[in-house]
Design goal:
By secondary structure, the protein is of the alpha+beta class. It has helices at residues 100-111, 140-146, 163-173, 186-193, and strands spanning 17-19, 32-36, 50-53, 57-66, 69-74, 81-87, 90-91, 115-123, 129-135, 138-139, 151-152. Helix 2 packs parallel to helix 3 (163-173).
Length: 196
């Protein structure tokens, strides 16, 4: 969308000015970035400003709650904020379930004290940021499902079609939780623990 000015179609609280060269280091890109060309003199050329969606957060993972939830520190030094993240499209065993601790440990191995790339999708009912997550170059949902340490979360399976075949392979290998005779899905476990 071509904007007539840097202010067009960009909410005030989400507006950042960004030249067209790569960024590096841990930082947060707001949902919308007003991007434009910069002349050699360093002056901006406002007639070329455009608005483009930017949805990647580069953060440091500082805590692991369970096999599908982590806490990350995002933004620049002096302006850090903590973000609780639910990994999109998977549901890991609860900590008190069989393989719950192993799932948590595997997520810690992948992400704890590592830089994570987060692609926020939405907020869940608990206020957590649901996001696609990559740590050390690995897609976290893919890694957890492949290891048999998380279920594909059915409501979001269509948006992540690569996960269902990985789960089927993990089942065939009896990897992780699939080594049990009757593995209990975490949503069933939660419902039995807290019936409505």
């Amino acid at each position: 969308t071509v904007a007539s000015s840097p202010q067009a179609r960009v909410p005030q609280e989400a507006r950042i000015v960004a030249p067209l060269w790569p960024f590096s280091g841990p930082f947060e890109l707001n949902r919308w970035c007003t991007c434009g060309r910069v002349e050699r003199s360093g002056r901006a050329a406002p007639q070329t400003w455009i608005s483009v969606p930017v949805t990647t957060l580069l953060c440091l993972v500082i805590a692991i709650s369970d096999g599908d939830t982590l806490t990350a520190r995002c933004n620049q030094a002096g302006a850090y904020r903590r973000v609780t993240v639910r990994v999109a499209a998977i549901d890991a065993p609860e900590t008190k379930q069989a393989f719950g601790l192993r799932s948590k440990q595997n997520l810690a191995r992948l992400c704890l004290k590592q830089q994570a790339k987060l692609q926020p999708l939405q907020k869940d009912d608990y206020g957590r940021t649901v996001a696609n997550v990559r740590c050390s170059g690995q897609d976290v949902a893919t890694a957890q499902v492949s290891a048999g340490l998380a279920w594909v979360y059915t409501p979001y399976a269509k948006q992540h079609p690569q996960l269902q075949p990985l789960q089927q392979r993990a089942q065939a290998r009896q990897a992780g939780l699939w080594s049990q005779k009757r593995p209990q899905a975490p949503w069933t476990y939660r419902h039995r623990q807290h019936p409505r």
